[in-house]
Amino acid sequence: MPSYLQAPVFFGLIAAFVTTIGLVIVAQRAPWTERNASIFGLAAAGMLATLAFLHIIPEAFHLSRQAPIWLATGFFGGLLLHNAVALLFPERPGRKPVNVAFTPIIAIAFHSFIDGIIYSVTFANSFESGVYASLGLILHEFPEGVIAFAIMKRAGVSNMKSFWIAFLAAAATTPAGALVSAPIMFMLEQETLGALFAMSAGLLLFVATGPLMAPLKETKPARGLGAVGAGVFAAMLIFLAPIHSGHNHAMDTLHDHDHDHAPSADQPDFSQM
């Protein structure tokens, strides 16, 4: 394996392993997970929305001037995707609608793939930056697996299918993102990464405030709001963890690294010719 692939793919595999641990734990208690799938979904809504507001959106705005446009694109793109799936696979008696699970799983997969890209970009800057970013991202990998499995169970999918779909969406996509992006990491400008961050945040916000929040109207207020609050609290713990500041430092070094590619005063700027 080429040297530029080794570190990002290795840490991407660690992230996938952590996600798989979460999957195995909830899969072993599948009946309990299925009974409480709506509560898991509400907790996931609180967690994803909080991480989007406190972490993903600020970084997107830091990296890209066009972030507001891509944020709206991600949000309304999720809305269109959700309703397109509902039209293609209409609800049938005794069967839960496909879009209940499809849109959230796509959002998780897209976000996890971008996590893999971040591994490649930050390791390209320096090994230290890559380690900081990886450790910060790995913190939220465990609940991602739990969330993905619970979403599939809420849609009435079997245990085995739920496990493998959640594994592909939440675990396998991270090393895949690192593997695909590592060879072209030097072509990824901060504007591009910021746009991807913003789209991911918009999609996650739609999922958090739409499909995942839907059970709130059919759940007892104390239980439902308590689940959302638990998700918000978990996200705050992840955001305030000391290693998370290292991730922010890694993104700052990415910002500086992008400026390093700009022509210096002693170098002609051929882009103007």
From TrEMBL:
Stretches the record annotates as Disordered: 251-273
Lineage: Bacteria, Pseudomonadati, Pseudomonadota, Alphaproteobacteria, Hyphomonadales
Keywords annotated in UniProt: Membrane, Transmembrane, Transmembrane helix
Ranges of Basic and acidic residues composition bias in the record: 251-263
Transmembrane segment boundaries: 6-27, 39-57, 69-89, 101-124, 130-151, 163-186, 192-213, 225-244
Membrane topology field: Multi-pass membrane protein
Keyword Transmembrane helix: yes
Compartment(s) of residence: Membrane
GO cellular component: membrane
Matches recorded under InterPro entries: ZIP
Protein name per UniProt: Zinc ABC transporter permease
Molecular function as annotated in GO: zinc ion transmembrane transporter activity
